[in-house]
Specification:
This protein is of the alpha/beta class. The protein is built from six helices and six strands, in the order βααβαβαβααββ. It has helices at residues 46-50, 56-71, 85-94, 116-122, 141-150, 159-162, and strands at 26-32, 78-81, 104-107, 132-137, 171-176, 189-194. The structure holds 3-phosphoglyceric acid. This is 2,3-bisphosphoglycerate-dependent phosphoglycerate mutase.
């Protein structure tokens, strides 16, 4: 996958491949849904939250993320998506992925409002054959998980972007040299971060 352009406020990125590391074998993108509208006034609870749609801005930024992923030739084999309307609409607004291959798309109830460990544990269920994967979910779980892995490995120039938090439509890119269902935390390396 080609490198993302620099995150706002960050330094230019130095892809790992230029630093002398071997080409990555497996890629993963963690993405937070794009901006969503609040629940209608007076409607509270999980059902109202699950039903929140993207705003026009959210649809636009998700589409930009899709263009970025296509430009990077990211071809997921598996996309795991929270069942919330805002994550599903984010995936729709991303549009197609690069190339002809269609990813396996799974709506995973456990991703809704998931704790970081829940998201991490889902990797153990990724089939061996899924080399490139994408997870579309929510904060605060995603931000915590990105920070957890970034604490082990953070490329130069991404520290500033990390400190921006993980706003809606953010994407964090990771590589691993082992199958995702066997990778331990030391195998999972942050390579890029894009905050819209
Ligand atoms: O990712 C999140 O923070 C949750 O899904 C809540 O979404 P919100 O920030 O749009 O309220």
């Amino acid at each position: 996958m080609k490198p993302l352009p620099p995150a706002k406020g960050g330094n230019p990125l130095m892809p790992d491949i230029q630093a002398g590391h071997p080409a990555p074998v497996r890629e993963m993108v963690l993405m937070r849904h794009a901006q969503a509208a609040p629940a209608p006034f007076g409607e509270m609870g999980m059902q109202a939250d699950l039903a929140r749609p993207l705003t026009a801005h959210g649809r636009q930024t998700a589409a930009s993320c899709g263009a970025l992923l296509r430009a990077r030739h990211f071809t997921p084999d598996l996309v795991m998506v929270s069942p919330a309307v805002r994550t599903r609409q984010t995936l729709t607004a991303i549009g197609s992925f690069y190339g002809d291959r269609q990813p396996d798309i799974r709506y995973v109830n456990a991703l809704y409002d998931a704790a970081p460990q829940t998201i991490r544990d889902l990797l153990y269920e990724v089939p061996d054959k899924a080399s490139n994967i994408m997870i579309l979910a929510h904060n605060p779980g995603l931000q915590a998980l990105v920070a957890h892995w970034a604490a082990r490995h953070c490329p130069p120039g991404l520290e500033n972007a990390l400190h921006q938090g993980f706003p809606p439509a953010s994407m964090a890119c990771f590589t691993a040299m082992r199958a995702w269902n066997q990778a331990d935390d030391g195998d999972i390396r942050l390579t890029d971060l894009s905050c819209q």
